[in-house]
Amino acid sequence: MGEKLGSLRRTHMCGDLRSSNINDEVVLMGWVQKRRNLGGLIFVDLRDTTGISQIVFDTDISEDAFNKADKIRNEYVIAIKGNVVERHSKNKDLPTGDIEVFVKEVKILDESQTPPIYIKDDDDVSDAMRLKYRYLDLRKPFMQNNLKIRHKTAKLVRDFFDENSFVEVETPILTKPTPEGARDYLVPSRVNPNKFFALPQSPQLMKQMLMVSGMDRYYQIVKCFRDEDLRANRQPEFTQVDVEMSFVDIEDIIRLNEKLIYKIFKELKGIEIDLPIKRMPYREAMDKYGSDKPDLRFGFEISNISEIVKDSQFKVFSDTVDTGGEVRAINVNGYESEFSRKGISKLEKYIKTYGAKGLAWIKINEEGINSPISKFLSEEEINNIIENFNAKLGDIIFIVADKQKVVLDSLGHLRIEVAKQLDLIDDEKFEFVWITEFPLFEYNEEEDRYVAKHHPFTHPVDEDIDILETSPEKVRAKAYDIVINGDEIGGGSIRINNSELQERMFNALGFTKEEAWSKFGFLLEAFKYGVPPHGGIAYGFDRLIMLLTGMKNIRDVIAFPKTQNATSLLTEAPSGVNKDQLEELNISLISKND
Amino acid sequence: MGEKLGSLRRTHMCGDLRSSNINDEVVLMGWVQKRRNLGGLIFVDLRDTTGISQIVFDTDISEDAFNKADKIRNEYVIAIKGNVVERHSKNKDLPTGDIEVFVKEVKILDESQTPPIYIKDDDDVSDAMRLKYRYLDLRKPFMQNNLKIRHKTAKLVRDFFDENSFVEVETPILTKPTPEGARDYLVPSRVNPNKFFALPQSPQLMKQMLMVSGMDRYYQIVKCFRDEDLRANRQPEFTQVDVEMSFVDIEDIIRLNEKLIYKIFKELKGIEIDLPIKRMPYREAMDKYGSDKPDLRFGFEISNISEIVKDSQFKVFSDTVDTGGEVRAINVNGYESEFSRKGISKLEKYIKTYGAKGLAWIKINEEGINSPISKFLSEEEINNIIENFNAKLGDIIFIVADKQKVVLDSLGHLRIEVAKQLDLIDDEKFEFVWITEFPLFEYNEEEDRYVAKHHPFTHPVDEDIDILETSPEKVRAKAYDIVINGDEIGGGSIRINNSELQERMFNALGFTKEEAWSKFGFLLEAFKYGVPPHGGIAYGFDRLIMLLTGMKNIRDVIAFPKTQNATSLLTEAPSGVNKDQLEELNISLISKND
């Protein structure tokens, strides 16, 4: 049934022993990583959360220990007492490789069956197996390390905000369903029949309430929930570093948060970022990178060549410009020879998924200009395009003509795709940029109305308040995103702090006064009683940890994640519940017919 | 619409100005606590989260500022620039009472209607109003202070565990419904029709999984949920400091946690606790205090006088002992004169709510023995009772005879009640005790079986493992609670770390092997692969903060609490949702007929 610890107490961790410990008597506890019988001795790699020590059983030292060790299998949990000696054959790959421990006493604390997955970083078992046996998967050193980096980052974030006079305040998990935004997870209320709580998509309104409460500076590392169909790096519950400050404008929030970002990258990656972090207005990001989260680790910026080709004989270009579209291009400078016709045709296929109808290109190689469209363009037009990019021998220019949205989307993805193919994306390089001056609204074709690009509490840029009703499409928001290597890691805004402006905002979104009050009544009520200027930011904590650990999969930075199907393979949640429970909640099931 | 901050930036907080700031030019921002026009000047108490500064408007300094100030009302949000001067009439009650600020420039950042509640600590508005206008209620200095102490405590707890090599790991909020324990909050899954997540009642199983994962030391400050009918100091969501360690026994956990408790009380209350904290086995606590969470700030211990009266002529006593009951008593020493017959009859009524049939008493006063039962007891019996308590002139002994449970419950509550009435409970005194050696099981009459007193993963005391099946009622658990001033602030145990023992435990609880696997299959599966000895503790964080702030109501230490009816008066959650949302979730409402 497993031996008991008794009075035995751990003196060292397995990963900590060094030459300086030679001659020490130590007690180690952990899991058996590997056992070998060799030359009359038994060698065991003993593993705990800090690493591995080699322990040796020798009948000359303890026959009893040796005999027990002979029964030990992988993943047995044992405790040993022994003496540290200099290792005969040192292992330079192991921090503890200079020593080994000769065992005087061993206790088998628990046995183990043969585990269904290997406990090693390079085990290539399926994701499903990893999630089902998560407690074994988490024994792998890289997973332990990911969780520790997560812990360290959280600690650093908390220390930072504490030092800067922020107060950690917990906001409710059982909240009010949100009328705007993504789909809520709902929780039926037993005490209040036929009513539901929602799990928060973010504590946005609550943190604003805290500012109205005079809390001045708030932060929280908090779970948020979205019942959306899960894409690759999404989880139904995710973690947010949530921040809000009073009596500030954009500059104050950005400056403070740059200090945090600096500290995180310095302490966790050893990288000293140049401050201030560069800023780029939304419009420029879209124009140059086709994205509001540009990856700046490589070039290939987008350039608008509509002016050059607007009168071209090549109708594909000139007609596009004529009908309000655009012709834009990127120069993949120096890599002309990397793109075969077959390769280009694959790229064309790729950008068609973003709506492009085709991909034109111009190569400048030893033979001169090489392009399937060269026969349709005048020499002047081709020269102007080349000149526009300062293109040289060895360059290749990719051109897309379409509606602006399609052109930017296609070229934005194309520049990333070619950089990937050319292996130009350096995982150890970090490029930071604040994207600013987002549009306040975006037009929703489905609903045929303007909707808030961020949320309806975002403050317009002061100079644009006057055109809120007349030219909503031109109104810029006091909003900002921090983008690292093409990932939006955080974003925020200055909020509206005045009931009159808030009502104008709701009005611009097409809500009647009654609708606005029924949706956001408590906010509008609160706004009657003196609201300080305030704003904040929220970071996607899981994504930040992915960046810091170099993981590509969000599940590798979360202890107990869900599958794409929002289930836990470990616990088998969600599961059926009995009828009585549902009756108590005043709900019944609808059976799924399709 | 409210003036904009522009380039104006806060230089100081309102509560921070002192004589040393005299002649400084400062910018303050905050809410108008009070405005008075006096002798041609306007005086404003300006409040932010740190306190209040008096600011003065004088037409000689700025006519523009003065005119704006004349429009200012309570709770307006303003920013001022001005010079600190020595105050004419100093206010010793205010930390900033030595200075005032003469204003050169003022901006009205937002106006306010007359707030429906006063922003002052001693406002005695109803709880309902406080919760509905929570953002105003939180402006009160004592509420700001409570949230700050909560923040400081959380910070201290996090620092402590970080320093002791614990890793903060987030466990899921969307979990599997629990077959044992309190009622779950359920969350219908849209993607998995007719299946439900549950919100965790505690991360118990997940933290054990982390130990099986080799995480070694885990902590988390985490929200937990119970859909129970709410008693006075309960909330549907509450916060727990959750801790688990591997390769430890009771002693290690208690010793480490005493350091934490020491640190909390030292840094937040300035009290240095004597370590080690005293320990009391469950049986002793029940015998002496009628409770497993005894308040040790006062005496009046319970004593068993069954032996003395078992052969008494007084049948109420002797029959009780004959039929397996007990006669116990407390001596409220020195307070005989405080209890009139009317007072005693009220106490009797009070203990009847705990099942007692009556309350006997013996006074020792100037006239000698005064007791309604003296005529039924022999002189020897009375003398023996008096001797048992070393009772003296001025004492009063209260006696209850009944089944043990009723006797202990009644006298346990009686001793607290009389201490309250006698005003012997000192809010500034803190008495700590570990209650240990809890019974592993308790008999559930309703279900006619033994159930786990804590939970089914609690490790029995090693010596008692052999009698698990034969004498379950005698098996003690490796469990411990930390009790402060009669409140259980935390509790935990060593867990079973062996599948065989875990199965024996489930068996003792009356589960078939199939039931055990269907309820806790993933734990039993995990237990096949090497489980370290482990154990932990969980603190009720809200209750801890109540203790540290001296609050009697849990709602005063939570930013946005729910009512007794589990509703938010601020946001009006829970609320109705539309039919489409429910259909997506494959549920429909049952209308409540009663």
Automatic annotation (TrEMBL), chains A, B:
GO cellular component terms attached to this protein's record: cytoplasm
EC assignment: 6.1.1.12
Residues reported to bind ATP: 226-228, 235, 488, 540-543
Record keywords, A-Z: Aminoacyl-tRNA synthetase, ATP-binding, Cytoplasm, Ligase, Nucleotide-binding, Protein biosynthesis
Reaction(s) the record says it catalyses: tRNA(Asp) + L-aspartate + ATP = L-aspartyl-tRNA(Asp) + AMP + diphosphate
Positions bound to L-aspartate: 180, 226, 454, 495
Gene Ontology terms, MF aspect: aspartate-tRNA ligase activity; ATP binding; catalytic activity, acting on a protein; nucleic acid binding; transferase activity
An individual GO BP term: aspartyl-tRNA aminoacylation
Assembly and binders: Homodimer.
HAMAP family for the chain: Asp_tRNA_synth_type1 (MF_00044)
Functional summary from the UniProt entry: Catalyzes the attachment of L-aspartate to tRNA(Asp) in a two-step reaction: L-aspartate is first activated by ATP to form Asp-AMP and then transferred to the acceptor end of tRNA(Asp).
Family membership noted in the UniProt record: Belongs to the class-II aminoacyl-tRNA synthetase family. Type 1 subfamily.
Protein name: Aspartate--tRNA ligase
